[in-house]
């Protein structure tokens, strides 16, 4: 099935068993190659939306990935298209060493030994973390785990990458490297984050969530400079914009 969107939701939603709504009336399309920031206060539903896109949570309405409905029969195919970087890197890493974690996905998708090695080498090189190849995951810092977790997704070579608070635990140098990596990517990216300065640097488009639904959807500059809109959703303008205002 052909579609102009890599990700498309029509009147999508999610509620807990007691019918408490977490998301409702979500209708949005994200085109191939777009970098989209997903922002909102705590509890706005950002992480829930990402989990719906990978089939980790059930949903109401229609959710499609590359023209495929996200439903049980399609999940293997959907998950070949989508890589999800969890907010907690310990949810991403479960093997003894970084190498083992990086090899796990390609091996399970039937890649040859040579192809698996190529993917591992490329992921480590892209993130500049070759030194972590044989490191035991239990001996890594939070920032190292974060970068290794992203590398596990890159070895799968997905068309769509979903990242949930990717800059958490990163020191300034690794945060800067992450921003560079995100800007070098050609894959479709959806980045959920409270780090609005990072969103400003990596995304052309922003979706602002509030009240269990989409409050605004537009260019990153239009939304992230709208102080009144952000304040009404319990957010503040990126620090870089505030600083520019102070010095103007």
Written overview of the protein:
By secondary structure, the chain is of the alpha/beta class. The chain has a domain at 7-89 and 158-246: Rossmann fold (3-Layer(aba) Sandwich). The chain is 38% helix and 24% strand. It contains ten helices and ten strands. It has helices at residues 46-53, 75-81, 98-108, 113-127, 142-154, 172-184, 196-202, 220-224, 227-232, 239-246; strands at residues 7-15, 21-30, 35-39, 60-65, 68-69, 82-85, 160-164, 188-192, 205-210, 213-219. The strands form two sheets. Strands 6-7-8-3-9-10 form a six-stranded mixed beta sheet, sandwiched between helices. The chain has a four-stranded antiparallel beta sheet with strand order 2-1-4-5, covered by helices on one side. Helix 4 (113-127) packs across helix 5. It starts with 6 loop residues before the first strand and ends with a helix. The relative contact order is 0.17. The model has no long low-confidence stretch (mean pLDDT 92).
